[in-house]
């Protein structure tokens, strides 16, 4: 079995987002980085499938040189090797990202055989374009199911559960398939120390695709105005309980 | 000029219509036009209808289904797609403002496309009050576009109060300290008939199931009162709280972002304060 998982490096934004002076990016000077939460579950699912079925797992990303950290994180969880489509740090839109990932997947498949499943996050934490996985699926001519909270392989097909209002919708599609997943699909493991050690020596194939002109072109970012909540203090410690209950009474709750 | 809109009966669809009307006279395709739901078939029908009508743009609400079908339409037709917009001005390029980080950031962007494909973020634009658009007659779906279809539906297990629809939510964060620490949160929630929520730090630690998580990658909530206990208020969490009518934050750190963005605050140790609130409520019974 061969499984791929595609991830994106994003900052850990904490409590308040600060922008760069030109307003075109988040000021990440004091921030750590991670892979998008949904994608972490895609990586975990890929690792579990290969543990259960044997085979080869690959993690792919399009991102700056530093994104190798997130590739190593994925390999520390158990992914076998990485493909890094390196950028100069400029933002790529969903179309460009999907085209570069498609080309990399096709090249890897020509050398090593078809991926049974390619995992994506349903949407990235930062730009939230809701499209890269679907575009790659169309380009590869494979079925795509989105927003998954459960994935179960069954021979030549995969049964998928998608969270919708009022429960879950079930899809069964033939393999190979592209699946976009959401946090809650599984609980990703913490990387073990030996896992981190092994990740350091696992192979990372690096290339630098040309960036097409984005057709969704970022002009500037802005932090939206707050919701104007007043932050009225009801006191401190357990002595504040009567004031809390009074507030709940006014709200018609108690 | 005609603009094509993928619609259902929701408020989000009527909000979408408000922006869509700027791009022409709307005609509609129903979200349930292909039953059971088959997103590729719906995207194919939209692509065909957009060509037939020479549509200036195609719109849908920025719901899970809306974003999914529009992304498939964009992939099928080789066009760009701007998701979760809160503003769109026709022109070449189209100028859009869209949500990033689950609404914690706004992005102004230029959309370069002969046929803009846009979704409108729910509850960011007033609803349209004009006449309902005329529905488009659809071409029957081809077999290959029906491969991905809903074949079954699982109803939610009826345990407790649903987070998305709860009127009151008592939510715990890292400050709760442990899985067992949630006993006092559950006690207060029980007294208030509330749902229990939590932050991402809590689900990542395995203290609560992901179905309890409020935030950008969890559930977006809209209660009358949201009681946040020991939650710092990372943007990830705040992205799920925008619909809350009143927020009460309980935290030992008065400078925690959630304490600054709440309606009411209590400073101190939640392990003392939460049981005290429960005791006070019992007195009123």
Structure description:
The complex is a heterodimer of chains A (254) and B (285). Chain A is an alpha/beta fold. Chain A has a single domain, classed as HUPs (Rossmann fold, 3-Layer(aba) Sandwich). Chain A is built from 6 helices and 13 strands. In chain A, the strands form 2 sheets. In chain A, strands 9-8-7-10-6-1-4-5-11 form a 9-stranded mixed beta sheet, sandwiched between helices. In chain A, α3 crosses α4. The mean pLDDT of chain A is 96. With 285 residues, chain B is an alpha/beta fold. Chain B folds into 2 domains: 2-146, Rossmann fold; 168-283, TPP-binding domain (Rossmann fold, 3-Layer(aba) Sandwich), CATH 3.40.50.1220. Helix content of chain B is 26%, strand content 26%. In chain B, a hairpin with a 4-residue loop joins β4 (81-89) and β5. In chain B, α2 (39-52) packs across α3. Chain B starts with a strand and ends with a helix. The relative contact order of chain B is 0.12.
Radius of gyration of chain B: 22 Å
β-strand number of chain A: 13
End-to-end separation of chain A in angstroms reads: 57 Å
Question: Which percent range fits the helix content of chain B?
Answer: 25-40%
Inertia-based shape of chain A = globular
Largest sheet of chain A: 9 strands, mixed
Count the domains of chain A. 1
Count of domains of chain B: 2
Mean pLDDT of chain B: 95
> Oligomerization state of this entry?
heterodimer
Greatest contact between two chains: A-B, 82 and 91 residues
SSE blueprint:
The complex is a heterodimer of chains A (254) and B (285).
Chain A: E1 2-7, E2 9-11, E3 33-35, H1 37-53, E4 56-63, H2 68-77, E5 81-86, H3 94-112, E6 117-121, H4 132-140, E7 144-154, E8 157-164, E9 167-174, E10 177-181, H5 193-201, E11 204-207, E12 216-222, E13 232-236, H6 241-250
Parallel strand pairs in A: 1-4, 1-6, 4-5, 5-11, 6-10, 7-10
Antiparallel strand pairs in A: 2-3, 7-8, 8-9
Helix pairs in contact in A: 2-5, 3-4
Chain B: E1 2-7, H1 11-20, E2 25-30, H2 39-52, E3 57-61, H3 64-77, E4 81-89, E5 94-100, E6 105-111, E7 117-120, E8 134-135, E9 152-154, E10 168-172, H4 183-192, E11 195-198, H5 200-204, E12 225-229, H6 235-238, E13 246-251, H7 257-260, E14 264-267, H8 270-283
Parallel strand pairs in B: 1-2, 1-3, 2-8, 3-7, 4-7, 10-11, 10-12, 12-13, 13-14
Antiparallel strand pairs in B: 4-5, 5-6
Helix pairs in contact in B: 2-3, 4-8
């Amino acid at each position: 079995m061969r499984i791929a998982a595609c991830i994106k490096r994003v900052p850990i934004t904490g409590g308040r987002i600060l922008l760069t002076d030109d307003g075109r990016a988040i000021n990440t000077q004091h921030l750590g980085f991670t892979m998008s939460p949904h994608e972490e579950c895609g990586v975990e699912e890929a690792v579990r499938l290969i543990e259960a079925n044997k085979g080869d797992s690959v993690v792919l990303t399009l991102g700056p040189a530093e994104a190798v950290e997130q590739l190593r994180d994925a390999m520390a969880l158990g992914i076998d090797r990485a493909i890094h489509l390196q950028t100069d740090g400029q933002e790529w839109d969903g179309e460009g990202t999907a085209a570069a990932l498609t080309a990399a997947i096709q090249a890897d498949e020509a050398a090593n055989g078809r991926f049974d499943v390619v995992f994506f996050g349903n949407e990235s934490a930062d730009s939230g374009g809701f499209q890269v996985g679907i575009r790659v699926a169309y380009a590869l001519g494979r079925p795509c199911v989105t927003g998954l909270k459960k994935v179960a392989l069954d021979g030549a097909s995969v049964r998928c559960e998608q969270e919708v209002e009022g429960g879950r919708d079930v899809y069964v599609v033939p393999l190979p398939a592209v699946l976009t997943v959401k946090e809650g699909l599984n609980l990703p493991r913490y990387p073990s120390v030996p896992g981190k050690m092994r990740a350091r020596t696992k192979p990372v194939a690096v290339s630098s695709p040309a960036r097409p002109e984005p057709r969704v072109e970022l002009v500037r970012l802005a932090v939206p105005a707050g919701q104007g909540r007043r932050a009225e203090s009801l006191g401190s410690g357990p002595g504040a309980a009567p004031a809390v209950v009074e507030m709940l009474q006014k709200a018609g709750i108690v | 000029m005609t603009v094509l809109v993928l619609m259902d009966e929701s408020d989000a669809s009527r909000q979408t219509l408000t922006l869509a009307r700027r791009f022409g006279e709307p005609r509609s395709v129903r979200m349930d036009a292909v039953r059971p739901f088959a997103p590729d078939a719906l995207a194919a029908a939209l692509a065909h209808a957009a060509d037939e009508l020479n549509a200036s743009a195609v719109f849908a609400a920025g719901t899970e289904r809306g974003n999914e079908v529009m992304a498939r339409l964009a992939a099928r037709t080789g066009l760009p797609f701007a998701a979760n917009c809160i503003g769109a001005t026709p022109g070449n390029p189209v100028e859009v403002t869209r949500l990033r980080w689950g609404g914690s950031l706004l992005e102004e962007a230029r959309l370069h496309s002969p046929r803009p494909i846009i979704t409108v973020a729910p509850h960011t634009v007033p609803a349209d009050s004009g006449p309902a658009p005329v529905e488009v007659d659809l071409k029957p779906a081809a077999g290959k576009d029906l491969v991905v279809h809903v074949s079954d539906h699982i109803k939610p297990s009826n345990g407790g109060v649903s987070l998305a629809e709860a009127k009151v939510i008592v939510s715990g964060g890292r400050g709760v300290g442990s899985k067992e620490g949630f006993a006092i949160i559950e006690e207060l929630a029980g007294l208030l008939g509330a749902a229990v929520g939590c932050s991402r730090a809590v689900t990542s630690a395995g203290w609560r199931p992901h179905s309890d998580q409020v935030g950008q990658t969890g559930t977006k909530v809209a209660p009358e009162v949201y009681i946040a206990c020991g939650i710092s208020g990372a943007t990830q969490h705040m992205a799920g709280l925008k619909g809350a009518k009143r927020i009460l934050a309980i935290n030992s750190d008065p400078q925690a972002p959630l304490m600054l963005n709440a309606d009411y605050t209590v400073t101190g140790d939640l392990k003392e304060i939460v049981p005290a609130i429960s005791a006070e409520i019992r007195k009123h019974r």
